[in-house]
Amino acid sequence: MNRIYLDHAATSPVHPEVIEEMMTVMQGTFGNPSSIHSFGREARSIVDRSRSIAAASIHADHNEIIFTSGGTEADNMAIIGAAMKNRELGNHIITTEIEHHAVLHTCQHLEQQGFEVTYLPVDETGRISVDAVKAVLREDTILVTIMFGNNEVGTIQPISEIGHLLKDHQALFHTDAVQAYGLHELHVGELGVDLLSVSGHKINGPKGVGFLYCRKDVDILPLAHGGEQERKRRAGTENVPGIAGLAKAIEIASSSMEEKRNRYAGFKEILKGNLDESGISYEENGSLEHGLPHVLNLSFAGTDVESMLVNFDMSGIAVSSGSACTAGSIEPSHVLVAMFGGDSEKIRNSIRFSFGLGNTEEDIVRAADEAVKIIHRLTT
User: Fold this and answer.
1) In the predicted model, what is the mean pLDDT of residues 157-169?
2) CB under 8 Å to 352, separation ≥6 — which residues?
3) Residues 181, 90 share a domain
């Protein structure tokens, strides 16, 4: 059985050129970037070049990039670091109900430290409004953290408009751009963000590496203490092979962004078109107007998400509920609950298809055909 991977929003396969780059570095450049001898300077050169590549991808300066172990650390560093550093200015934070748990759980941690967090609701497309942010913005608000594009339904938030709203306010603005990076053009100056999180494994790079953009005049409290790496903002010897792999993945993603957007949009139409032709009833979750190209979340009335996932897996197709799997059971998606309410059938019958490297039109057709068989089997 040829397996088909349609869960790229969860993680993505490493690009062959990224693997080659990392192998080359691991085999030939083992020095510590902090060492002053030639071995250290060779490693430092790789880190410096990678930093410039990361910065250029979001139109930032190289010294505004902090390499991390991934999106979760970048989110934690941005949120906790900004909140703790600016606590004397206030203790109010604004976020949304549909953030990744790396943001939600971090905000909940800060609530235990005495901070007050406002969790903005979303509409049925998963979107917040600028007016909603404006309505809860206070003089003592020190941080606004709102994701760029949602990992479960793909909805894109009005980040640049919110950035404009906050332009003359003391609050720092952070966006988790993990799911959008590599598929959506990001210009930190135009977006008006102070902090932005990225993860390598979502763009066909290695797991365990990412970066945080931190605007040059923004000061955050470090979470890790030790050496003076990353301009004293993140202690610890740099993951040189991982950083090199991330840089290669960024180069590849940046050069193929438009082509991928068009291809994945085509995949969406193929999958939905085949379902339509087969008479399958479904509803698309998320914003049709403001959505990521590679994420397609569909609700199938009369089905059960756990049964659907098992049946897809038995057919050799990897899809997702977009929900957290805990102790062997699937918890309701907090994103869908925020969009439709806890009593909605959609939180129990929605499946996420997400496209990426290696997928073909033939894969999408087969996935649609299998979906038709599975839905008929579960509803008749």
Assistant:
1) 98
2) 7, 9, 152, 153, 295, 296, 297, 319, 320, 321, 322
3) yes
SS3 7: strand
**Dist CA 179 CA 175 (whole Å):** 11
Q: Are residues 268 and 233 in the same domain?
A: no
First-last CA distance in the chain = 26
C-alpha closest to that of 44 among 33, 32, 30:
33
Catalytic hit among 111, 301, 325, 341? 325
Structural domain range at position 298: 4-12+257-379
Same-domain pairing of 245 and 138:
yes
For 95, the enclosing helix (H) or strand (E) is strand 92-96
Question: Around Cβ 375, how many Cβ atoms within 10 Å?
Answer: 23
Q: What are 291-322's pLDDT values in tens digits?
A: 999 999 999 999 999 999 999 999 999 999 86
Find, among 302, 297, 346, the residue nearest to 320 by Cα.
297
Please give the tally of structural domains in the chain: 2
The runs of H, that is alpha helices, within 278-333 are 305-314
Report how far Cα 61 is from the mean position of its chain's Cα atoms.
22
| CA 153 – CA 295 distance, rounded (Å) | 6
**pTM score:** 0.96
- Is residue 325 annotated as part of the catalytic site, yes or no? yes
Question: In sequence order, what are the beta bridge partners of 291?
Answer: 155
Same domain assignment for residues 37 and 139: yes
SS3 249: helix
